[in-house]
Amino acid sequence: MIVDTNAYLGYFAFRQLRHNTAGELLRLMDEKGIDKAMVSSASAITYRNTQPANEELAAAVRPHRDRLIPFAVVNPFYAGWQDDLKACHEQFGVKGLRLYPKWHSYALSDQCCLDLIREAADRSFLVSIPLRVEDYRQRSWLVDVPDVPHGEIVDLVKACPRARFILVNGIGFARSPLGKKGSGLPANYYIEISRLSATLANEVGTLVSQLGAERVVFGTGMPFKYPDPAFVKLEVLDATPEAKEKIFGGNAVGLLELNAK
Questions:
Q1: Domain 3-260 carries which CATH code?
Q2: Measured distance CA(220)–CA(229) in Å, rounded
Q3: Within the chain, which residues score under 70 in pLDDT?
Q4: Which of 140, 155, 173, 249 is the most buried (most CB within 10 A)?
Q5: Residue of 74, 18, 9 lying closest to 42 (CA atoms)
C-alpha cells in the first residue's frame, strides 16, 4: 500500500493549484498508484479563521473517506480554537492536525501551541508540521514567511513526548539532531521525503541509516508539487524492499491504526 502523508485540497491565495479538488486529486492518485492520502486545506494556510476551511475539507472528503484522510488546520492563537478542535474531531472525524506557526504568527513554544498539541495527543491525533509551504524564492511580494527552524522542532518534540509528529516539506534533517542517532530526542516524530535528496547528499539514505526506515514516510506535496520525484527518490534509494515498503505506506498505516485505537 502507498500512503501519501503530505497532500492538500482547496485553493492557495498566491498561485493556482491543479488537481486540488477531491475528484481531481483521486484521479492523480490513481494514475500514480497512490492508495490513500492525508489531506488538509490549502485555503486554511491564508484564512484568518481556519475553521471554514476545515468545514470545506470535511465536505469534500466525506464521500471518499476510504482514501482521503482529513487533517484539520487549527490556529492556537485564534480565539476559540478549543471549540474548533472539538468540532473537527467529533463532527468531522479528522485524524490529525496540520500546523503553520510562521503563517499564523505564533511560535511552537507558545503556551497556546503546547496546549493545542497536548489536547491533540489526548485525542490520539497525528500532528503534521510543514516546515515550508512554497520555495522561498517563489514567494509573493505580499508575504515574507520563513521556514520553521529545526531548533524549534527539537524543542517541541522534547516538550510533547506523548504527541506524534510528521515533519513534512523539510530538508537538512541529517545535519540536525532530528536526523542523528543518539541525539537523545524521543522517537515521536517521522520525516516525510518530498524535499529530501536521494542521490547527491542522499539525505533519505542517511535518515534510514540513522533513524531507521520505520521513522521515514512517503509524501508528495500534491498539488503544490508533482508526485513523480517522490517515487524516483525511493526507486534510487539503496535500501531493502522491506525498508521501502515501510516508507511507502507501512509506517503511515501503523500510525493511522494507532490513531484509531
A1: 3.20.20.140
A2: 8
A3: 258-261
A4: 173
A5: 9
